[in-house]
Specification:
Blueprint (H helix, E strand, L loop, with lengths): L15 E5 L1 H7 L8 E5 L3 H6 L3 E2 L6 E3 L6 E4 L1 E5 L7 E5 L5 H6 L9 E2 L5 E2 L4 H7 L1 E2 L11 H12 L4 E2 L1 H12 L8 H12 L5 H9 L3 H4 L1 H4 L16 H14 L4 H9 L18 H4 L1 H11 L3 H18 L6 H10 L9 H13 L10 H14 L4 H4 L6 H21 L5
Parallel strand pairs: 2-5, 10-11
Antiparallel strand pairs: 1-2, 1-8, 3-4, 4-5, 6-7, 8-9
Helix pairs in contact: 5-7, 5-8, 11-12, 11-17, 12-15, 12-17, 14-15, 15-17, 16-20, 17-18, 18-20
Length: 423
């Protein structure tokens, strides 16, 4: 492993340059890193500009290499100056050493560097923690940045076999108790959460946050699901929160896109609003869940594609589960609520999320979900109906729409009749 060699690059010849952070960690794990980060020790911003680098850092000096486009940062230290993510004062200068720079990083596995000769520099034991599968904070300064709670949880989701050091968990609990998690801005919460949702085991992100008390602060709608029972006949796992995380992991298991994974996370939020006198039944939870889904999406500025699918899955996932029992005209109503005839691309993500809900249950991870195949075929049949055949019969306006609905209902019924009795 080497950084870009000073002997081969005029821009950094003579500078003390190191490759740092995640790309070093990933290389040691045998993972190809998508990009690399570099730290320059002993230089000044003016010197970097003279060498052709383009400055881009607003809070601290970061520079873009003029040819490779990679980021080079000057070694820096940071000092807490206020609450939350933005409460820091950064210092750069020739007096800041590589160890000083690495000491400000979050986890030991992210606080390693490699010099121009490919030698590993590991002042905080990150390589040993990497070999032993441990996520551990570098220093008590970890507690100064609440985003690090989210990053720790995200790394736990990415490196699912790694354990979190007990002292690191305790530090996070103390941070939450001190109110640091209250200072997290929505944009950073979503930025970390969307990355976590795309990991192999996203449930760990939410489990870690719940373990340290941060889930109730960041995602109270999700935290409220834990301890809410469901009917054991349909949910052998019983607990709604446990079920929700199983559904999210199922979405990861099938390689679903982000909107599907987010919809899986929030599809049952209405169950937290079921009066306890009605437990373990949750009649009407689909409609009740729309308000907390909207609230969560608004608070965290969730992208529209994720928000729209989440609302559709939240309201209609039971329709999908009962698709084989629904009357053809009810199936048509479902397609219209999905806006399927104008936005046919919505069907597959909707069905995938519903399938994950059905399979995200204890012992049912590989259970068949014939409802999806039926709805795909029924949708194809309904979409094949065109207005031209009715226009040619002299129909106009609303008469065409009614005739199309009758024909679509008929074709959906014919599709259902072709399925095997076991379906």
């Amino acid at each position: 492993m080497t950084v870009r060699s000073p002997e081969l690059d005029d821009c950094i010849r003579g500078l003390e340059c190191y490759q740092v952070g995640g790309s070093v960690r990933d290389h040691l794990l045998g993972i190809e890193a998508p990009d690399r980060d570099f730290v320059i020790v002993g230089a000044t911003p003016d010197e970097m500009v003279r060498r052709g680098f383009k400055p881009v850092g607003r809070d601290f000096p970061v520079f873009i290499h003029p040819r490779s486009g990679e980021e080079y940062a000057l070694a820096r230290t940071e000092r807490k100056s206020g609450r939350g993510y933005h409460g820091f004062v950064f210092h750069t200068g020739p007096d800041v050493s590589l160890k000083d720079d690495l000491a400000r990083r979050d986890l030991t596995v992210n606080a390693m560097a490699v010099d121009a000769q490919g030698r590993l520099i590991d002042p905080f034991g990150g390589h040993d923690d990497l070999r032993n599968g441990i996520l551990r904070h570098v220093a008590d300064a970890f507690a100064e940045d609440p985003v690090r709670i989210l990053r720790l949880a995200r790394f736990a989701a990415r490196f699912e076999s790694f354990e979190i050091a007990a002292e690191t968990l305790e530090l996070c609990r103390n941070m939450v108790a001190a109110g640091e998690a209250d200072e997290l801005v929505p944009e950073r919460v979503w930025q970390e959460m969307k990355k976590a949702l795309m990991q192999a085991r996203p449930s760990r992100f939410f489990e870690v946050l719940r373990d340290v008390g941060a889930l109730d602060v960041i995602l109270p709608e999700v935290d409220a699901l834990f301890g809410v029972p469901q009917t054991a006949r349909y949910h052998p796992e019983i607990d709604t929160g446990v079920h929700t995380l199983m559904v999210v992991d199922q979405a990861a298991r099938i390689g679903a896109e982000l909107p599907v994974r987010f919809a899986c996370l929030v599809h049952d939020l209405g169950k937290a609003l079921t009066p306890s006198s009605e437990w373990p039944a949750h009649r009407g939870h689909e409609k009740r869940g729309l308000v907390p889904i909207e609230s969560l999406c608004r608070r965290l500025a969730i992208p529209n594609d994720c928000r729209e699918l989440a609302l559709l899955v939240g309201e209609f996932h039971l329709h999908a589960h009962r698709a084989l029992e629904l009357k053809p005209r009810t199936v048509l109503k479902l397609f219209k609520r999905l806006d399927l005839f104008r936005r046919p691309e919505r069907l597959e993500p909707f069905l995938l999320a519903c399938q994950c809900d059905a399979q995200g249950r204890l012992g049912r991870e590989d259970a068949p979900y014939p409802q999806a195949d039926y709805l795909r075929k029924a949708a194809q049949a309904a979409q094949s109906v065109e207005a031209t055949q009715f226009v040619s019969q002299g129909m106009k306006g609303e008469s065409i729409a009614k005739a199309m609905d009758r024909e679509r209902t008929k074709r959906i019924a014919e599709t259902r009749a072709t399925l095997s009795p076991e379906s």
